[in-house]
Amino acid sequence: MRIRCKPWAKPELEVCPFYISDPKACKGQWQAQFPKTQPLRLELGCGKGGFIAQEAPANPEYNYIAIDIKNEMLVLAKRKLEAAYAEQQLPLDNVRIMIDNIMYLRECFAETDRLDRIYINFCNPWPRGKHKKRRLTHPRQLVQYRMLLDGEIWFKTDDDELFEESLEYFPEAGFRITTMTRDLHSEPTLRYFETEHEHMFDEMGKKIKFLIAEPDPSVPEESLRELLQYSEKYSERKR
């Protein structure tokens, strides 16, 4: 779906106190962007903010960064966050939002910016063969995340092909899958905050697929470095 340009979106973001206008300048210093040093969690492709506006205020003992590539989406996430924190009478101090192309994530994060958890919720499935390398769960992307990650990746999708192929992507990038279901809503103990897309797909009768993956310590660091180098060369070619 094409998103119409909203000329007011960028100016509204630029005066937002929790918007990071220059994420590259924060590389290696993300904890300094928050009042408290706490475990750091990252949502890739936050969209309209339906998830982060539930997750972040419910867990004030964590710091959160939510990323999207469009001003027009991120400004809606900003408004949802403001409304959620105001409703709960909480200080909005443990979340930051930013614009970035996730393909170049390592330009904004150093390996000292350790992440406790990464959320990937209903990302673009890129079904065409030549576009699959753009998937947020493609090994070229996953290996970037792995170099920053101390904890887990939580991944949700409604797309069958993306999910089945991602089950192969994660081990290729040095992860082991610890939890997996092809019908999340049939397993109440695994359910957590729902996104707008999740609610919509559930009403359509689509099953929600979900997995949790963590770095596999048995994978040699050298092989991951080689894959990372290959990933970065690919990203450079796409500029």
Could you describe the 3D structure shown?
- The chain is α/β, with parallel strands linked by helices.
- Helices cover 32% and strands 20% of the residues.
- The protein is built from seven helices and eight strands.
- It has helices at 9-14, 52-58, 71-87, 139-146, 160-172, 196-203, 221-237; strands at residues 19-20, 40-44, 63-68, 95-99, 115-121, 149-157, 175-181, 209-215.
- Strands 1-4-3-2-5-6-8-7 form an eight-stranded mixed beta sheet.
- The longest helix is centred in the first third of the chain and has 17 residues, at 71-87.
- The mean pLDDT is 92.
Task: Characterize the overall form.
Answer: globular
Return the structural class: alpha/beta
Number of helices: 7
Please state how the strands of the largest beta sheet are arranged side by side. Answer: 1-4-3-2-5-6-8-7
Q: Topology as H/E string?
A: HEEHEHEEHEHEHEH
Distance between the termini: 23 Å
